[in-house]
Amino acid sequence: MDRRAFLMTSAAMLAAPRIAMASTPEMTLTADRLMQQILPTKYAGPTEVMGFNGSVPGPELRVQQGERLNVRLQNNLDEGAAVHWHGVRLNNEMDGVPMLTQPLVPPGDSFEYSFVPRDAGTYWYHSHYLSHEQVARGLMGPLIIDEATPPDVDHDICAVLADWRLTREGQFTDDFGNRHDIAHAGRMGNYAKAFLPDVTLKQGARIRLRLINASVDRIFPLIIKGLSGKIVALDGMPLPAPRDYDVPFLSPAQRVDIIADVTGPVELDMQHRQGAYPVGALPVAGEMQPRSAPIPTLPANALPVAGGVTRNLDLIMMGGAMSGGHGGDDIWAFNDMSGMQSEPYARFKRNETVKIALRNDTRWPHGIHLHGHHFHELNSDGSLGDFRDTSLVNPGQTQEILCVFDNPGKWMLHCHMLSHQAGGMKTWIEVA
Ligand code: C2O
Ligand code: CU
């Protein structure tokens, strides 16, 4: 070990003594078809889903920040597969995008993923092959990167939000890739649900609730009952200070972390034009003394600091129903181009700071996701807003983002309404 490496190691150890320089033992995620009870049994029996390790969502993967995660994808499906680690700033070859960062994993075959997540927070993993169908059928799960010193809570709970379109018999309607859905809001389900762990809370307990919108196309406005607290992180990244909330809004793929005290039975309802639609609940029994400490601020992750803007770009969302034409050859387009092109939308020099105006010229909302990076949403006065990996842009609106492209490789940039992605709203960038 040379002197420089030694100094860096000791500095890192002083700053964060609990960051393990370790590796998790390799674990396997096996993708397969299986039967699982999705609808309440009074409506129908089990649904044939696609899951990881026999369940939907797949197992909660959890490692310490700085610890290497080793996961072997075993594909037991009768079609290809690949796993994307959504929101994780990792090495490009581990990003899980078939044809762009790795070969598609054929049926019966496997692929080794191995990476060190740099950032603590709430992430998730999902299929990135035929994702509008494979994610809808259940190929997704939570990925939690623990802080060196996690906040003081009694329970750390993931709520994985999903949206299902099922027949009376509880089976998927076989209408994936339906052009009408793709041209509108996407493949909306008829049964929405939050997958929650089986825990009973005490009145007065403090919990961390990690909301993950793993649905394919549905935006969840969530009414949260029985909790009093604040939002502490968005898309994995801690807020500079805890923030009050009313009805947290999650575009597909977005995450919201809340730290809150239990004031009654916890209920998650989706705000819907037909009224509040219950998606999940956590029972309460017994009582404990509530904490007097305020809701904590989570330790910041070491994201790159924005420099001078080298370029201003526009990413114009086009297409869909009830809109004008565009120059692409599919239902949706960015800047008059549909689907993955041989040339990227843009090439960046490493560490360039770029401003991109995400301009929605369509009649539908879009959640725009950039792989391998987090970016700032810019506030209307141009100041730096929240870090996100997925930005929701409403019809007719423009959301400016500022990104330091510090992660070399080929990264997708696409709408995370996965039906829109399937209908051409996708492109890629390259950081040299
Ligand atoms: Cu969550 Cu391109 O993906
Ligand atoms: Cu979209």
Write a compact overview of the structure shown:
This protein has helices at residues 3-15, 131-134, 179-183, 418-422, and strands at residues 27-36, 47-52, 61-64, 69-75, 83-86, 110-115, 121-127, 140-146, 155-164, 191-195, 201-203, 206-213, 220-234, 237-243, 249-250, 255-272, 275-282, 284-287, 309-319, 332-334, 346-348, 352-360, 366-370, 375-378, 384-388, 390-393, 398-405, 409-415, 426-431. The chain has 432 residues and is mainly beta.
From the structure above, extract its key features.
binds copper (II) ion, six-stranded mixed β-sheet, single chain, eight-stranded mixed β-sheet, disordered N terminus, 432 residues, binds CU-O-CU linkage, 45% strand, mainly beta, globular
Write the layout of secondary structure elements.
Blueprint: H1 3-15, E1 27-36, E2 47-52, E3 61-64, E4 69-75, E5 83-86, E6 110-115, E7 121-127, H2 131-134, E8 140-146, E9 155-164, H3 179-183, E10 191-195, E11 201-203, E12 206-213, E13 220-234, E14 237-243, E15 249-250, E16 255-272, E17 275-282, E18 284-287, E19 309-319, E20 332-334, E21 346-348, E22 352-360, E23 366-370, E24 375-378, E25 384-388, E26 390-393, E27 398-405, E28 409-415, H4 418-422, E29 426-431
Parallel strand pairs: 1-4, 3-8, 9-12, 11-18, 19-22, 21-29
Antiparallel strand pairs: 1-2, 4-6, 5-7, 7-8, 9-10, 12-16, 13-14, 13-15, 13-16, 16-17, 19-20, 22-27, 23-26, 23-28, 24-25, 24-27, 28-29
The structure holds CU-O-CU linkage (C2O) and copper (II) ion.
The site of CU-O-CU linkage (C2O) has 10 residues, from strand 5 and strand 28.
